[in-house]
Design goal:
The complex is a heterodimer of chains A (212) and B (44). With 212 residues, chain A is mainly alpha-helical. Chain A is built from nine helices and no strands. Chain B has one domain. Classes of the chains: A mainly alpha (212), B mainly alpha (44).
Chain lengths: 212, 44
Amino acid sequence: MEKYLNSGIKAVIEEFPEIESILTDYEIGCGPCMVGTCLLKDIVSIHSLSESDEKELMERIAGVIKNGNDPGKAKPENISKKPVTYSGPMQKLVDEHTLIKRWLALIPRVVEYVDLKTESGKQIIKDGIDMIRSYADKFHHAKEEDILFKYFDESVEIIQVMYKDHTNARALVQNMIKALESENRVLLSESFLAYRDLLSHHIQKEDEILYP
Amino acid sequence: MNDRGLNEISLIEMDAKFVEADKNSGITEKKYEDLINDLEKLIP
């Protein structure tokens, strides 16, 4: 067990795939996270689980590693997390996430609702793309890239992943614009939903791992 | 991240840079808050 506690979570999940779903039960998204270098022993403290949830989670993981089965099986009804505190500048970035998350929550309904053949439908999409390019990217991500990340060693993997997420998000915006111009509903839906998925995980990594 | 090497002076400096960046961006948060409010009303 000691060996695994000091291993990167991606390597542990590779050897014991069941652990990914156990972590998901506790709202810990190590599966889709592209970093995966956090050590298993640090996962719990990084994600601020309560003591009882921490104990249960580690018992379930130990069960899989030692005996090959998950003794917990059932998803806990309520996950309690210790309150997270942020410094002033980080709090500002976390607060900006609130508006971005409201837009992300709307996206599935928007892509279902809009009619790209109408001017009003097109305008909704133009406004949504403007929200992403101006508020999420130029206003928010720019502060991270031009200011925040400069205070740290930018070569570390987690910062590189943040940059990569921003680049991937910009590529998806290009697809949204193409979809709008060609009135391609399928591409529009795919690119908006992919953006939603990408940014949701990105914000979770920042709120739970990078900024506290 | 502040626990990983940023001191109080760096945080104050960063905060000031954020304020300056917001000012220079020409973007107001209110505009996008209004947009999201409108969309939430429009799309059930």
